[in-house]
Write a structure and sequence with these properties.
The complex is a heterodimer of chains A (211) and B (286). With 211 residues, chain A is of the alpha/beta class. Chain A has helices at 2-10, 14-26, 31-52, 57-74, 80-83, 101-112, 126-135, 148-151, 154-163, 181-187, 196-210; strands at residues 88-93, 116-119, 140-144, 171-175, 191-193. Chain B is an alpha/beta fold and 286 residues long.
Chain lengths: 211, 286
Amino acid sequence: MREQLANALLSGDDIATRDLTATLLEQGESPVGILEDILLPTIRKAGDLWEEGELFIPELLQASAALKAGLEVIKPLLPASSESMRGTIIVGTIQGDIHDIGKTLVAGMLESAGHRVVDLGADVSPQSFVGAAQREAAQLICISALLTTTMLNQESVVTERNNAALQGRVGILVGGAPVTREWADRIGAEGYAPDAFRAVQEAARLLAIVQ
Amino acid sequence: MSSILLLDGAMGSMLLSAGLETGGMPDLWNITQPGIVQSVHQAYRDAGADIITTNTFGANPARLKANGLDPSITTKINQEAVRLAREAAGHSQVAGDIGPTGMLLEPVGPLRKEDALVSFRVQAEALAAGDVDLLLLETFFSLDEALLALQAVKEVCAIPVWVSLTFRKTRRGFFTIHGDKPLESLRVLLGHGVQKAGANCTLSSADMKILAKELCQQLGDRVFLQPNAGEPRVVDRTIIYPESPAEFAGNMLDMVASGAEAVGGCCGTTPDHIRELHDALQGRHT
Protein backbone atom coordinates (compact mmCIF):
# COMPACT_ATOMS: atom_id res chain seq x y z
CA MET A 1 0.00 0.00 0.00
CA ARG A 2 2.83 2.39 0.88
CA GLU A 3 4.52 1.56 -2.37
CA GLN A 4 1.26 2.10 -4.23
CA LEU A 5 1.00 5.57 -2.73
CA ALA A 6 4.55 6.41 -3.72
CA ASN A 7 3.87 5.20 -7.25
CA ALA A 8 0.62 7.17 -7.47
CA LEU A 9 2.42 10.33 -6.39
CA LEU A 10 5.34 9.79 -8.72
CA SER A 11 3.02 9.17 -11.65
CA GLY A 12 1.10 12.34 -10.83
CA ASP A 13 -2.22 10.63 -10.11
CA ASP A 14 -3.86 13.08 -7.70
CA ILE A 15 -7.03 11.07 -7.11
CA ALA A 16 -5.15 7.84 -6.30
CA THR A 17 -2.72 9.79 -4.10
CA ARG A 18 -5.61 11.29 -2.14
CA ASP A 19 -7.46 7.98 -1.82
CA LEU A 20 -4.41 5.91 -0.88
CA THR A 21 -3.41 8.48 1.73
CA ALA A 22 -6.88 8.21 3.25
CA THR A 23 -6.76 4.41 3.15
CA LEU A 24 -3.38 4.30 4.90
CA LEU A 25 -4.73 6.60 7.62
CA GLU A 26 -7.71 4.30 8.09
CA GLN A 27 -5.32 1.40 8.41
CA GLY A 28 -3.63 3.16 11.30
CA GLU A 29 -0.58 4.78 9.67
CA SER A 30 0.37 8.03 11.36
CA PRO A 31 -0.01 11.30 9.41
CA VAL A 32 3.58 12.27 10.19
CA GLY A 33 4.76 8.84 9.05
CA ILE A 34 2.94 9.16 5.75
CA LEU A 35 4.37 12.64 5.23
CA GLU A 36 7.96 11.95 6.23
CA ASP A 37 8.37 8.34 5.10
CA ILE A 38 6.36 8.34 1.88
CA LEU A 39 5.25 11.68 0.45
CA LEU A 40 8.32 13.86 1.00
CA PRO A 41 10.92 11.22 0.04
CA THR A 42 8.92 10.45 -3.08
CA ILE A 43 8.72 14.08 -4.18
CA ARG A 44 12.45 14.38 -3.53
CA LYS A 45 12.91 11.38 -5.76
CA ALA A 46 10.93 13.19 -8.45
CA GLY A 47 13.49 15.98 -8.19
CA ASP A 48 16.33 13.53 -8.62
CA LEU A 49 14.60 12.00 -11.63
CA TRP A 50 14.35 15.49 -13.19
CA GLU A 51 18.10 15.85 -12.77
CA GLU A 52 18.59 12.41 -14.28
CA GLY A 53 16.40 13.17 -17.29
CA GLU A 54 13.71 10.63 -16.34
CA LEU A 55 10.94 13.08 -15.46
CA PHE A 56 10.11 16.40 -17.13
CA ILE A 57 8.13 19.55 -16.51
CA PRO A 58 4.66 18.11 -17.27
CA GLU A 59 5.27 15.16 -14.93
CA LEU A 60 6.73 17.39 -12.22
CA LEU A 61 3.70 19.66 -12.28
CA GLN A 62 1.39 16.65 -12.06
CA ALA A 63 3.39 15.16 -9.19
CA SER A 64 3.21 18.51 -7.42
CA ALA A 65 -0.59 18.54 -7.82
CA ALA A 66 -0.78 14.95 -6.54
CA LEU A 67 1.32 15.87 -3.51
CA LYS A 68 -1.10 18.68 -2.78
CA ALA A 69 -4.04 16.28 -2.96
CA GLY A 70 -2.38 13.88 -0.53
CA LEU A 71 -1.45 16.65 1.89
CA GLU A 72 -4.94 18.03 1.97
CA VAL A 73 -5.96 14.74 3.55
CA ILE A 74 -3.27 14.63 6.23
CA LYS A 75 -2.70 18.35 6.90
CA PRO A 76 -5.59 18.68 9.40
CA LEU A 77 -4.24 15.66 11.28
CA LEU A 78 -0.66 16.81 11.67
CA PRO A 79 0.32 17.55 15.29
CA ALA A 80 0.38 21.20 16.35
CA SER A 81 4.05 21.01 17.31
CA SER A 82 5.18 20.64 13.72
CA GLU A 83 2.72 23.38 12.75
CA SER A 84 4.81 25.87 14.75
CA MET A 85 7.75 25.21 12.46
CA ARG A 86 5.75 26.53 9.55
CA GLY A 87 5.46 30.06 8.33
CA THR A 88 3.97 32.51 5.89
CA ILE A 89 5.96 32.74 2.70
CA ILE A 90 5.73 35.21 -0.20
CA VAL A 91 6.59 33.64 -3.56
CA GLY A 92 7.04 35.27 -6.95
CA THR A 93 9.11 35.64 -10.12
CA ILE A 94 11.21 38.79 -10.26
CA GLN A 95 10.26 41.94 -12.15
CA GLY A 96 10.93 41.72 -15.88
CA ASP A 97 10.64 37.94 -15.91
CA ILE A 98 7.42 36.26 -16.95
CA HIS A 99 8.53 32.66 -16.42
CA ASP A 100 6.51 31.05 -13.70
CA ILE A 101 6.90 27.27 -14.04
CA GLY A 102 9.67 26.93 -11.46
CA LYS A 103 8.06 29.44 -9.17
CA THR A 104 4.71 27.63 -9.28
CA LEU A 105 6.43 24.38 -8.44
CA VAL A 106 8.16 26.01 -5.46
CA ALA A 107 4.88 27.53 -4.26
CA GLY A 108 3.16 24.13 -4.50
CA MET A 109 5.96 22.36 -2.65
CA LEU A 110 6.04 24.92 0.16
CA GLU A 111 2.30 24.77 0.51
CA SER A 112 2.52 21.00 0.56
CA ALA A 113 5.07 21.23 3.34
CA GLY A 114 2.41 23.04 5.36
CA HIS A 115 3.37 26.67 4.94
CA ARG A 116 0.92 29.44 4.17
CA VAL A 117 2.00 30.58 0.72
CA VAL A 118 1.11 33.85 -0.99
CA ASP A 119 1.93 33.50 -4.69
CA LEU A 120 2.31 36.93 -6.29
CA GLY A 121 2.77 35.46 -9.80
CA ALA A 122 5.42 36.62 -12.26
CA ASP A 123 6.97 40.02 -13.06
CA VAL A 124 6.76 41.16 -9.42
CA SER A 125 8.35 44.46 -8.41
CA PRO A 126 10.62 44.71 -5.33
CA GLN A 127 8.02 47.01 -3.74
CA SER A 128 5.30 44.41 -4.24
CA PHE A 129 7.42 41.66 -2.67
CA VAL A 130 8.20 43.70 0.42
CA GLY A 131 4.71 45.23 0.63
CA ALA A 132 3.17 41.75 0.55
CA ALA A 133 5.59 40.52 3.23
CA GLN A 134 4.49 43.38 5.51
CA ARG A 135 0.78 42.99 4.75
CA GLU A 136 0.82 39.21 5.28
CA ALA A 137 3.25 39.28 8.22
CA ALA A 138 5.45 36.85 6.29
CA GLN A 139 8.77 35.52 7.54
CA LEU A 140 10.19 34.68 4.14
CA ILE A 141 10.28 35.97 0.55
CA CYS A 142 11.17 33.50 -2.23
CA ILE A 143 12.27 35.09 -5.50
CA SER A 144 12.58 33.15 -8.75
CA ALA A 145 14.35 34.22 -11.95
CA LEU A 146 14.83 32.18 -15.10
CA LEU A 147 17.02 34.61 -16.98
CA THR A 148 20.51 35.75 -16.15
CA THR A 149 19.41 39.25 -17.06
CA THR A 150 16.41 39.40 -14.74
CA MET A 151 18.29 37.65 -11.95
CA LEU A 152 20.11 40.94 -11.40
CA ASN A 153 16.81 42.46 -10.19
CA GLN A 154 16.71 40.08 -7.22
CA GLU A 155 19.18 42.36 -5.49
CA SER A 156 16.62 45.21 -5.49
CA VAL A 157 14.29 43.14 -3.32
CA VAL A 158 17.05 42.73 -0.72
CA THR A 159 17.66 46.48 -0.82
CA GLU A 160 13.94 47.22 -0.53
CA ARG A 161 13.64 44.80 2.39
CA ASN A 162 16.59 46.38 4.18
CA ASN A 163 15.23 49.89 3.56
CA ALA A 164 11.99 48.78 5.21
CA ALA A 165 14.07 47.73 8.25
CA LEU A 166 12.90 44.12 7.92
CA GLN A 167 16.33 42.52 7.90
CA GLY A 168 16.44 39.73 10.45
CA ARG A 169 12.65 39.51 10.50
CA VAL A 170 11.97 38.64 6.86
CA GLY A 171 14.39 36.26 5.17
CA ILE A 172 15.04 36.17 1.44
CA LEU A 173 15.52 32.96 -0.54
CA VAL A 174 16.58 33.18 -4.21
CA GLY A 175 16.46 30.52 -6.88
CA GLY A 176 16.07 29.85 -10.59
CA ALA A 177 18.20 28.40 -13.35
CA PRO A 178 21.02 30.99 -13.42
CA VAL A 179 21.13 31.63 -9.65
CA THR A 180 24.04 30.35 -7.58
CA ARG A 181 25.01 30.34 -3.91
CA GLU A 182 27.69 32.91 -4.70
CA TRP A 183 25.08 35.22 -6.20
CA ALA A 184 22.84 34.84 -3.13
CA ASP A 185 25.79 35.67 -0.85
CA ARG A 186 26.82 38.64 -2.97
CA ILE A 187 23.41 40.32 -2.89
CA GLY A 188 22.80 39.53 0.78
CA ALA A 189 20.03 36.97 0.37
CA GLU A 190 20.04 34.59 3.32
CA GLY A 191 18.93 31.56 1.34
CA TYR A 192 19.54 29.83 -1.96
CA ALA A 193 17.99 26.74 -3.50
CA PRO A 194 19.01 25.13 -6.80
CA ASP A 195 15.59 23.53 -7.28
CA ALA A 196 12.05 23.41 -5.91
CA PHE A 197 12.77 20.39 -3.76
CA ARG A 198 15.69 21.90 -1.96
CA ALA A 199 13.76 25.17 -1.63
CA VAL A 200 11.56 23.40 0.92
CA GLN A 201 14.58 22.39 3.04
CA GLU A 202 16.16 25.81 2.72
CA ALA A 203 12.88 27.53 3.68
CA ALA A 204 12.71 25.42 6.84
CA ARG A 205 16.28 26.42 7.72
CA LEU A 206 15.54 30.13 7.22
CA LEU A 207 12.27 30.03 9.15
CA ALA A 208 14.14 28.60 12.11
CA ILE A 209 16.52 31.59 11.96
CA VAL A 210 14.03 34.42 11.57
CA GLN A 211 11.45 33.17 14.03
CA MET B 1 33.36 23.03 -50.65
CA SER B 2 32.61 26.12 -48.60
CA SER B 3 28.86 25.63 -48.68
CA ILE B 4 28.61 26.08 -44.91
CA LEU B 5 26.00 28.71 -44.05
CA LEU B 6 27.01 31.06 -41.28
CA LEU B 7 24.17 32.41 -39.14
CA ASP B 8 24.61 35.49 -36.98
CA GLY B 9 24.94 35.54 -33.19
CA ALA B 10 23.03 36.97 -30.26
CA MET B 11 20.88 40.08 -30.43
CA GLY B 12 19.43 40.30 -26.89
CA SER B 13 22.73 40.19 -25.02
CA MET B 14 24.15 42.75 -27.50
CA LEU B 15 21.28 45.14 -26.78
CA LEU B 16 21.76 44.67 -23.04
CA SER B 17 25.36 45.75 -23.49
CA ALA B 18 24.05 48.75 -25.42
CA GLY B 19 21.85 49.82 -22.52
CA LEU B 20 18.64 47.83 -22.75
CA GLU B 21 17.29 47.75 -19.21
CA THR B 22 17.22 44.38 -17.47
CA GLY B 23 13.93 42.68 -18.22
CA GLY B 24 13.16 45.10 -21.05
CA MET B 25 11.90 43.72 -24.35
CA PRO B 26 14.58 43.81 -27.06
CA ASP B 27 11.85 43.69 -29.71
CA LEU B 28 10.61 47.17 -28.77
CA TRP B 29 13.97 48.62 -29.80
CA ASN B 30 13.06 48.02 -33.45
CA ILE B 31 10.84 51.07 -32.94
CA THR B 32 12.49 53.01 -30.13
CA GLN B 33 16.20 52.43 -30.93
CA PRO B 34 16.28 51.33 -34.58
CA GLY B 35 19.80 52.68 -35.11
CA ILE B 36 21.28 50.44 -32.44
CA VAL B 37 19.43 47.34 -33.67
CA GLN B 38 20.63 48.03 -37.19
CA SER B 39 24.21 48.54 -36.07
CA VAL B 40 24.18 45.07 -34.50
CA HIS B 41 22.88 43.60 -37.77
CA GLN B 42 25.63 45.44 -39.65
CA ALA B 43 28.30 44.18 -37.29
CA TYR B 44 27.19 40.60 -37.93
CA ARG B 45 27.10 41.17 -41.68
CA ASP B 46 30.60 42.68 -41.55
CA ALA B 47 31.72 39.66 -39.50
CA GLY B 48 30.71 37.47 -42.42
CA ALA B 49 27.27 36.14 -41.46
CA ASP B 50 25.34 34.74 -44.44
CA ILE B 51 22.08 34.98 -42.55
CA ILE B 52 20.95 37.99 -40.54
CA THR B 53 18.15 37.30 -38.04
CA THR B 54 15.44 39.87 -37.30
CA ASN B 55 15.12 41.19 -33.75
CA THR B 56 11.69 39.62 -33.26
CA PHE B 57 12.22 36.68 -30.91
CA GLY B 58 9.49 37.87 -28.53
CA ALA B 59 7.37 39.84 -31.00
CA ASN B 60 4.30 37.62 -30.89
CA PRO B 61 0.99 38.85 -29.44
CA ALA B 62 0.96 36.28 -26.60
CA ARG B 63 4.38 37.30 -25.31
CA LEU B 64 3.85 41.02 -25.82
CA LYS B 65 0.64 40.79 -23.81
CA ALA B 66 2.37 38.81 -21.06
CA ASN B 67 4.90 41.66 -20.87
CA GLY B 68 2.12 44.19 -20.36
CA LEU B 69 2.29 45.57 -23.89
CA ASP B 70 -0.49 46.14 -26.40
CA PRO B 71 -0.46 43.07 -28.70
CA SER B 72 -1.76 45.22 -31.57
CA ILE B 73 1.80 46.54 -32.05
CA THR B 74 2.91 43.08 -33.22
CA THR B 75 2.67 43.85 -36.93
CA LYS B 76 4.47 47.16 -36.67
CA ILE B 77 7.37 45.73 -34.62
CA ASN B 78 7.85 42.84 -37.04
CA GLN B 79 7.66 44.97 -40.17
CA GLU B 80 10.14 47.49 -38.80
CA ALA B 81 12.43 44.66 -37.74
CA VAL B 82 12.46 43.16 -41.24
CA ARG B 83 13.18 46.55 -42.77
CA LEU B 84 16.13 47.13 -40.39
CA ALA B 85 17.60 43.69 -41.04
CA ARG B 86 17.12 43.90 -44.79
CA GLU B 87 18.78 47.32 -45.04
CA ALA B 88 21.76 46.08 -43.06
CA ALA B 89 22.02 42.65 -44.67
CA GLY B 90 23.55 43.61 -48.02
CA HIS B 91 23.96 40.38 -49.95
CA SER B 92 23.23 38.26 -46.88
CA GLN B 93 19.88 36.59 -46.39
CA VAL B 94 17.32 37.73 -43.82
CA ALA B 95 15.69 35.25 -41.44
CA GLY B 96 12.46 36.31 -39.74
CA ASP B 97 12.77 35.22 -36.14
CA ILE B 98 9.85 33.59 -34.30
CA GLY B 99 10.28 32.48 -30.69
CA PRO B 100 7.94 30.51 -28.41
CA THR B 101 5.07 32.13 -26.53
CA GLY B 102 6.86 31.52 -23.24
CA MET B 103 3.73 29.93 -21.80
CA LEU B 104 2.82 26.30 -21.19
CA LEU B 105 0.22 24.81 -23.47
CA GLU B 106 -2.92 23.04 -22.28
CA PRO B 107 -3.37 20.68 -20.52
CA VAL B 108 -0.10 21.31 -18.62
CA GLY B 109 -0.47 25.10 -18.65
CA PRO B 110 -3.02 27.82 -19.36
CA LEU B 111 -2.36 28.52 -23.06
CA ARG B 112 -5.03 27.21 -25.43
CA LYS B 113 -3.76 25.74 -28.68
CA GLU B 114 -6.09 27.96 -30.70
CA ASP B 115 -4.69 31.06 -29.00
CA ALA B 116 -1.12 29.95 -29.63
CA LEU B 117 -1.94 29.34 -33.30
CA VAL B 118 -3.45 32.80 -33.67
CA SER B 119 -0.44 34.37 -31.98
CA PHE B 120 2.07 32.63 -34.28
CA ARG B 121 -0.08 33.37 -37.34
CA VAL B 122 -0.17 37.12 -36.65
CA GLN B 123 3.60 37.29 -36.31
CA ALA B 124 4.30 35.05 -39.32
CA GLU B 125 1.99 37.16 -41.49
CA ALA B 126 3.77 40.34 -40.48
CA LEU B 127 7.22 38.88 -41.16
CA ALA B 128 6.16 37.27 -44.43
CA ALA B 129 4.73 40.57 -45.64
CA GLY B 130 8.27 41.95 -45.42
CA ASP B 131 11.23 40.82 -47.45
CA VAL B 132 12.46 37.72 -45.61
CA ASP B 133 14.27 34.77 -47.20
CA LEU B 134 13.34 32.27 -44.50
CA LEU B 135 11.56 32.04 -41.17
CA LEU B 136 13.61 30.91 -38.18
CA LEU B 137 11.49 29.32 -35.46
CA GLU B 138 13.95 29.06 -32.59
CA THR B 139 14.48 28.10 -28.97
CA PHE B 140 11.29 26.04 -28.64
CA PHE B 141 11.32 24.01 -25.42
CA SER B 142 8.57 21.65 -26.49
CA LEU B 143 8.15 19.87 -29.79
CA ASP B 144 4.38 20.34 -29.54
CA GLU B 145 4.64 24.11 -29.46
CA ALA B 146 7.19 24.10 -32.29
CA LEU B 147 4.77 22.05 -34.40
CA LEU B 148 1.96 24.49 -33.64
CA ALA B 149 4.15 27.40 -34.71
CA LEU B 150 5.09 25.52 -37.85
CA GLN B 151 1.44 24.82 -38.63
CA ALA B 152 0.58 28.51 -38.22
CA VAL B 153 3.46 29.59 -40.44
CA LYS B 154 2.51 27.16 -43.19
CA GLU B 155 -1.05 28.48 -43.12
CA VAL B 156 0.05 31.99 -43.99
CA CYS B 157 3.07 31.64 -46.27
CA ALA B 158 5.28 29.32 -48.31
CA ILE B 159 8.62 30.73 -47.15
CA PRO B 160 11.27 28.12 -46.20
CA VAL B 161 11.25 27.38 -42.48
CA TRP B 162 14.04 26.39 -40.10
CA VAL B 163 13.14 25.20 -36.61
CA SER B 164 15.37 24.75 -33.58
CA LEU B 165 14.56 23.29 -30.19
CA THR B 166 16.53 23.95 -27.03
CA PHE B 167 17.88 20.94 -25.17
CA ARG B 168 19.15 20.48 -21.64
CA LYS B 169 21.93 18.09 -20.72
CA THR B 170 21.01 15.48 -18.12
CA ARG B 171 22.75 12.37 -16.92
CA ARG B 172 20.59 10.36 -19.31
CA GLY B 173 21.39 12.55 -22.29
CA PHE B 174 19.83 15.56 -23.96
CA PHE B 175 16.14 16.46 -23.67
CA THR B 176 13.87 19.50 -23.89
CA ILE B 177 12.39 20.38 -20.50
CA HIS B 178 9.26 18.62 -21.75
CA GLY B 179 11.20 15.43 -22.36
CA ASP B 180 11.48 15.55 -26.17
CA LYS B 181 14.54 13.71 -27.47
CA PRO B 182 16.75 15.53 -29.98
CA LEU B 183 17.07 13.07 -32.84
CA GLU B 184 13.43 11.97 -32.78
CA SER B 185 12.19 15.56 -32.53
CA LEU B 186 14.29 16.81 -35.41
CA ARG B 187 13.15 13.88 -37.53
CA VAL B 188 9.53 14.82 -36.83
CA LEU B 189 10.20 18.43 -37.81
CA LEU B 190 11.97 17.41 -41.02
CA GLY B 191 9.06 15.10 -41.74
CA HIS B 192 6.81 18.15 -41.54
CA GLY B 193 8.73 19.78 -44.33
CA VAL B 194 11.09 22.18 -42.57
CA GLN B 195 14.20 22.98 -44.59
CA LYS B 196 16.54 22.58 -41.64
CA ALA B 197 16.03 21.47 -38.05
CA GLY B 198 18.41 22.15 -35.22
CA ALA B 199 19.37 22.92 -31.66
CA ASN B 200 20.13 26.28 -30.08
CA CYS B 201 20.53 28.14 -26.78
CA THR B 202 20.88 26.58 -23.28
CA LEU B 203 23.98 24.53 -24.18
CA SER B 204 27.53 25.81 -24.40
CA SER B 205 29.36 25.13 -27.65
CA ALA B 206 31.37 22.49 -25.76
CA ASP B 207 28.20 20.57 -24.85
CA MET B 208 26.54 21.24 -28.20
CA LYS B 209 29.48 19.53 -29.87
CA ILE B 210 28.49 16.27 -28.18
CA LEU B 211 24.86 16.63 -29.26
CA ALA B 212 25.89 17.67 -32.78
CA LYS B 213 27.75 14.43 -33.35
CA GLU B 214 24.64 12.38 -32.65
CA LEU B 215 22.41 14.60 -34.78
CA CYS B 216 24.69 15.06 -37.76
CA GLN B 217 25.51 11.39 -38.04
CA GLN B 218 21.85 10.68 -38.73
CA LEU B 219 20.57 13.88 -40.31
CA GLY B 220 23.73 15.34 -41.82
CA ASP B 221 23.34 18.59 -43.69
CA ARG B 222 19.76 19.13 -42.52
CA VAL B 223 21.03 20.16 -39.08
CA PHE B 224 21.81 23.68 -37.87
CA LEU B 225 23.38 24.56 -34.54
CA GLN B 226 23.48 27.78 -32.50
CA PRO B 227 24.87 27.25 -28.99
CA ASN B 228 25.51 29.86 -26.31
CA ALA B 229 28.99 31.18 -25.66
CA GLY B 230 29.16 29.01 -22.54
CA GLU B 231 27.08 29.09 -19.39
CA PRO B 232 26.48 32.63 -18.16
CA ARG B 233 28.10 33.71 -14.92
CA VAL B 234 27.62 36.90 -12.98
CA VAL B 235 30.85 38.69 -12.16
CA ASP B 236 30.51 41.98 -10.28
CA ARG B 237 26.86 42.28 -11.31
CA THR B 238 27.76 41.88 -14.96
CA ILE B 239 26.80 38.84 -17.00
CA ILE B 240 29.75 37.06 -18.49
CA TYR B 241 29.58 34.35 -21.16
CA PRO B 242 32.89 32.56 -20.69
CA GLU B 243 33.63 31.10 -24.14
CA SER B 244 36.09 33.23 -26.07
CA PRO B 245 35.64 33.68 -29.83
CA ALA B 246 38.53 31.27 -30.45
CA GLU B 247 37.14 28.58 -28.15
CA PHE B 248 33.65 28.98 -29.63
CA ALA B 249 34.91 28.89 -33.21
CA GLY B 250 37.00 25.81 -32.48
CA ASN B 251 33.99 23.91 -31.17
CA MET B 252 31.80 25.06 -34.07
CA LEU B 253 34.42 23.87 -36.53
CA ASP B 254 34.24 20.43 -34.91
CA MET B 255 30.47 20.44 -35.49
CA VAL B 256 31.04 21.26 -39.14
CA ALA B 257 33.48 18.37 -39.28
CA SER B 258 30.66 16.21 -37.86
CA GLY B 259 28.51 17.24 -40.82
CA ALA B 260 26.60 20.38 -39.82
CA GLU B 261 26.20 22.74 -42.76
CA ALA B 262 24.68 25.72 -40.95
CA VAL B 263 26.14 27.16 -37.76
CA GLY B 264 25.89 30.33 -35.73
CA GLY B 265 25.54 31.57 -32.18
CA CYS B 266 22.97 32.21 -29.49
CA CYS B 267 23.17 34.02 -26.13
CA GLY B 268 26.49 35.65 -25.34
CA THR B 269 27.94 35.35 -28.83
CA THR B 270 29.09 38.58 -30.45
CA PRO B 271 30.23 39.73 -33.89
CA ASP B 272 33.75 38.76 -32.71
CA HIS B 273 32.61 35.15 -32.23
CA ILE B 274 31.00 35.11 -35.67
CA ARG B 275 34.04 36.71 -37.32
CA GLU B 276 36.37 34.17 -35.70
CA LEU B 277 34.10 31.38 -36.90
CA HIS B 278 33.91 32.90 -40.38
CA ASP B 279 37.68 33.06 -40.61
CA ALA B 280 38.03 29.54 -39.27
CA LEU B 281 35.58 28.24 -41.88
CA GLN B 282 37.48 30.04 -44.62
CA GLY B 283 40.76 28.58 -43.45
CA ARG B 284 39.73 25.01 -42.83
CA HIS B 285 40.89 23.67 -46.23
CA THR B 286 44.13 25.57 -46.39
